[in-house]
Amino acid sequence: MKHLSFILLLFSATATAVAQQEITRRVSSQEESRLYIKGYLDYGIAMPNSFKGIPDVNTNTLLKNSLKGWGQGLKVGLGAGYIINDFINFGLDIDYYLSPKISSEKSIANSESKAVFDAQIIALTPNITFKAIQNVDFYPYSRVGVTIGLPFGMTNTVDNTVLVGGKKNFIQSVYNYKSGPAFGYLAALGVRKSLTPGFKLFAEIQANNLTIQPKTASLTSYQENGTDQLSTLTVAQKEIQFTDNVSNSNNPNQATQQIKTPFLISRICIQFGLTFRF
Fold first, then answer.
1. Count of other CB atoms within 10 angstroms of residue 28
2. What is the mean pLDDT of residues 66-87?
3. Percent of the chain beyond pLDDT 70?
4. Are 207 and 268 in contact (CB under 8 A)?
5. 3 near 243, Cβ under 8 Å?
6. Looking at the chain, which terminus has fewer C-beta neighbours within 10 angstroms, N or C?
7. Beta-strand pair 199-212/182-194
8. In this predicted structure, what is the pLDDT of residue 3?
């Protein structure tokens, strides 16, 4: 009888301990936030099909391409995510491209041209992360998303130097390009490693793609040998409209039409960052 009482007491104590552990686990799980934030930095290399310069506005001939394509260089960002379960997370990334200026040039006969393109991009990317295995300390993952780019500050500064009668004539033209939202995608493979219960370090190989379609270009500055001559130009000389079908009206009071030419950002990068789970 004593042995039976001892067995029942031991069984009761064990059952109580297991139940208490399960309750603690459930409470802890419920209290642990499913939200996390992250910050990251990457360096990308532009693919051969990336935008590398604007054709000469007057002759529509290509300048000598820049060695650097749009999208090359650094990209920084912040993001947030929500953990659906052990294998799927939803997230949103906000990126800022720190792309270098794109310089292209040409030289023919007695003239030289150099164009410097500059622009800024903020990109929003809703994305889904798929964990490959269930492991809280270390796991590989894949990530895909749809990117919405917001380009701004797109300018192209063109310097033309023409030798006439032994004298150099210098003309500088500054064009301001306008575009609507750009669309593209993100695809990545990465690994994530826990540093503390809240912090994780991650690294990933990422591919970015964005197609930007300018709508208009306006000549905002036109100087000849240091003298402002913008007011002497017609609307057709100062305004460009990009369209699918060009209609040459030769009307000096209407914008000049040119065929749409998309600016493509295509890059491969290595990204490093930290996530923090509340």
1. 9
2. 89
3. 83
4. yes
5. no
6. N
7. antiparallel
8. 47
Protein fold of 32-277: Porin (2.40.160)
Taking residues 107-128, what's their average pLDDT?
Answer: 90
3-state secondary structure the chain: CHHHHHHHHHHHHHHHHHHHHHHHHHHHHHHCCCEEEEEEEEEEEECCCCCCCCCCCCCCCCCECCCCCCCCEEEEEEEEEEECCCCEEEEEEEEEEECCCEEEEEEECCEEEEEEEEEEEEEEEEEEEEECCCCCCEEEEEEEEEEEEEEEEEEEEEEEEEEECCEEEEEEEEEEEEECCEEEEEEEEEEEEECCCCEEEEEEEEEEEEEECEEEEEEEEEEECCEECHHHCCHHHHEEEEECCCCCCCCCCCCEEEECCCEEEEEEEEEEEEEEEC
From CA 170, how far away is CA 181, in angstroms rounded?
35
Residue boundaries of the structural domains of the chain: 32-277
Quickly count: other Cβ atoms within 10 Å of residue 268's Cβ: 14
pLDDT at 103: 85
Residue 175 to residues 48, 180, 181, 237, Cα–Cα distance (Å): 25, 17, 19, 11
pLDDT digits (tens, 9 = 90+) for 21-64: 444 444 344 456 899 999 999 999 999 889 888 866 555 555 55
Token duo for residue 88: 């799927």
Instruction: Please tell me the distance from the alpha carbon of residue 195 to that of residue 190, in angstroms, as a whole number.
Output: 16
Residue 122 has pLDDT above 60, yes or no: yes
Distances 10 to 7, 13, 60, 163, 185 between C-alpha atoms, Å = 5, 5, 89, 102, 60
Give the C-alpha separation, 85 to 73, whole Å. Answer: 35
